[in-house]
Amino acid sequence: MSNVVHNRLSGEEMERQLQAAIEQARNACSVSGDYSSECAVAWDTVEELQAAAADRRFKKVQNSLEEFCDDHPEASECRMYDV
């Protein structure tokens, strides 16, 4: 699942998917072995979900300027220039 899809999930749904992915990873490792490719892929999925959840939490924290710019992107204070 891509980050775009992760960003559309509710926090609760993302947490459910993360817990399910952890369970699947543990199962894959117990069936295929800790050093199997199935185990590695399963834990990579867990890592992606954790990163998406962390990114989502980080994006929720905004300062007052960021909130203003979200509401008024055309304002001069919100312009971004490439230097």
Describe the protein in words:
With 83 residues, the chain is mostly helical. Helices cover 72% and strands 0% of the residues. The protein is built from four helices and no strands. The protein has helices at residues 3-8, 11-32, 37-60, 64-71. Helix 2 runs antiparallel to helix 3. The longest helix has 24 residues, at 37-60. The radius of gyration is 18 Å and the shape is elongated. The chain starts with a helix and ends in a 12-residue tail after the last helix. The model has no long low-confidence stretch (mean pLDDT 85).
In short:
The protein is 72% helix and 0% strand. With 83 residues, it is an all-alpha fold.
Helix and strand sequence: HHHH
Mean pLDDT: 85
Helix proportion range: over 70%
The secondary-structure class comes to mainly alpha
The global form is elongated
Task: State the low-pLDDT regions, or none.
Answer: none
Number of strands: 0
Portion in beta strands: under 5%
How many distinct helices? Answer: 4
Distance between the termini: 35 Å
Cα radius of gyration in angstroms: 18 Å
Largest sheet: none
What would the keywords be for this entry?
83 residues; elongated; 72% helix
Fold blueprint:
Blueprint lengths: L2 H6 L2 H22 L4 H24 L3 H8 L12
Helix pairs in contact: 2-3
